[in-house]
Amino acid sequence: MISQQEMLKHFLPILENKGVTYQKKSLIKARKAVPGTLIITRTNDGDETKNTAKAGDWLVENQTSSSEQYLVKPEVFEKKYKLIQSLEKGWGCYQPIGKITAIEINADDLAFFGKTDCMEFEAPWNELTLLRVNDFLVTPPEKNEIYRIAKKEFFETYEKV
Length: 161
What we know:
Protein name: ASCH domain-containing protein
Number of helices: 4
Distance between the termini: 33 Å
Organism: Algoriphagus pacificus
Structural class: alpha+beta
Helix content: 10-25%
Shape: globular
């Protein structure tokens, strides 16, 4: 498995040199996650990753064609989202306020790791995640983690700053 550290070591210089700053353009739905709940993130191209909720985690649902769900740590959630409206059953509508730096992945990027059209690597939450050619690799301003956003969902949710 390709670790977070290996991914950061290889891709951070590329992100710093060629990366583009984006922000989310669409609202999200979120609620406190139930600890122990397994969340499988599904995009239009299939299962992306999984994660198990811990105390304090937030369950986020993007407003995309796949309505993908994922978990966010409480300290990260507070930096990235602002409550707009409370909804039913503990859900809320939130305005994204964070930014990311992103690059679109090409075949040469995967070839560095001996792969052709897709590969798996360790996500920041210690589970495997999939990366395909034309997906986006992103990092927050802190540059302390790196993760994938599928191409279709990326363009449904992000815009250049």
